[in-house]
Design a protein that fits this description.
Layout (H helix, E strand, L loop, with lengths): L2 H12 L7 H8 L3 H13 L4 E4 L3 E4 L12 H17 L4 H14 L16
Antiparallel strand pairs: 1-2
Length: 123
């Protein structure tokens, strides 16, 4: 797992407002506690509102808002696959799925999602 992905996952875990031990985080992320300690120290040094330490656990001091478009490539792929499935198999929701897929492709061009504007006629 890349460090950036791991740091993102740590923030997502800590957003629940509970205290999490380094061992718990390490188990969930599949890394060593030492890696978690280094990551937490780096996160705190960059200004993220993380409180805690070795033997105590870690918690976010204040809510942290991340943009909703911060998705991993695997998450984008899963989302696009699910939307295409809905579009193909659920006539009641097909238009909504197509529209959402187009919005995601527009917001995240780097994801490489191919989607047709739902307002355009079918080819």
């Amino acid at each position: 797992m890349k460090r950036d992905d791991r740091l993102y996952d740590i923030v997502q875990i800590l957003r629940d407002g509970r205290l999490h031990t380094a061992q718990e985080l390490a188990d969930r992320l599949g890394v060593s506690t030492r890696t978690v300690w280094r990551d937490m120290a780096m996160m705190a040094a960059t200004g993220l509102p993380v409180t805690g330490g070795r033997g105590l656990g870690y918690i976010l001091r204040s809510p942290l808002m991340l943009p909703p478009t911060v998705l991993t490539p695997d998450e984008i792929d899963a989302l696009a696959t699910g939307l295409r499935h809905v579009e193909a198999n659920d006539p009641a929701r097909a238009r909504a799925a197509k529209s959402l897929l187009y919005k995601i492709a527009t917001l995240l061009p780097q994801a490489g999602i191919e989607a047709q504007d739902p307002r355009e006629p079918q080819a």
